[in-house]
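Re: that chain you flagged

S.,

Sorry for the slow reply, it's been a week of failed gels. I finally had a moment to sit down with the sequence you sent. For the record, here it is as I used it:
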Amino acid sequence: MPEVFLGLGANLENPVMQLRWCVQTLAQDPDIEIQRISSLYRTTPLGCEEPQPDYYNAVVSITTEKSPKVLLKLSLGLEAEIGRERAKKNAPRLLDVDLLLYNNEIISEPDLRIPHQEMTKRAFVLVPLAEIAPEVQHPEVKQSIAALLAQIPTQGTYCVAVGPDWAKLNEE
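Prediction finished late last night. Pasting the structure tokens below so you have them in one place:
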């Protein structure tokens, strides 16, 4: 069954609860099995025109038979359900669900790019991804996630909850 890595982020209202809701909603899908959940990280916003709150980020590994296109639609649906509005690039958001990797596939379509085209430059993606899957190879650059992480600065990315327990809805 394909292994998929999803990057999660939020920085508006109650970001931790929104990320928990996202993980729990994914877990309730009968066609998705959550394999691993990273620790929760707080990160300084990058590339923003105006000041905004820090982000909370995590990575979730799932197995599913859902196609990349179906997962993209699911991700956009989760974002919309929680109320995300796509106003402009790098705008603050209630929820962001990025399809980072889908097995070793490389997909380049107008509305879908796998692996995620910016992931190799982003500590807020590579730090949690390296935590749960350091040995996974990036299918385009042919380097492990751990090796990619070693090549970028990580300041501004702080662990705020170690392990996957932050994702439990009954935790605060």
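What I noticed first: The chain is about 25% helix and 25% strand.

Talk soon,
D.
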